[in-house]
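Incident review: delayed structure delivery

Summary: a single-chain prediction request sat in the queue longer than the usual turnaround. Root cause was a stuck worker, restarted by the on-call engineer. No data loss occurred. The affected request and its eventual output are reproduced below so the record is complete for anyone auditing the incident later.

Affected input:
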Amino acid sequence: MSVAVASQQYYDDYGEEAGGEYYQEQDYGGDYYGEEDGGDSLYSGYVKHQQEKAMGVKGGLPPMLKNVAIGATGWFIGAKFHSRRAVNKAVKASGKQQQKIYERYVKDVSALQLQNQQLQEYIQQMTIQQLTEEFLMADTNNDRKVSRLEFERYKKQYLEKHPEADPSMFPKFEDFDPDHNGMVTLAEHENYYRHQGMIA
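Output delivered after worker restart:
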């Protein structure tokens, strides 16, 4: 610490005998040491200013209100930022979920369409097979043709096996013989049911 002398001349911690440096009062602006109380006026002024600032003097906010204001501002900004992030995240997740649902829907519809097509083809094959078996049952002489006599015999046997069937609803021989040659071929037999919409 420097020591003050009456002539307002100052030496550093080592003193003049030890070769210390010499300072004039003017080097410190003339009031480095206070004249009234003999203390450090700059330090005391700084301490006073900090105390007044901490106590909310000279227009400053009290520490409690300042902390509340800072906390409220931080909460508002943070809540707004996080809520925006949450909304964006939710919208993004919802978009991905909708995309997955749409893709699943398209996939399911395609699978159902394929299954329906396969089912229709299976029904067509089974119907044609059943009609062919009926034709062969009517063709008792196995010449791949059904005469009127064979047709009437098959019709009688069918109605006997199915008494609930209406005889008037049973097709006539002429319905299967468009060329009126007295014989029904397998192709003519299938064409009749094709015209009825039973097969494609």
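Verification: Residues 63-138 form the longest helix (76 residues).
Action items: add queue-age alerting; document worker restart procedure.
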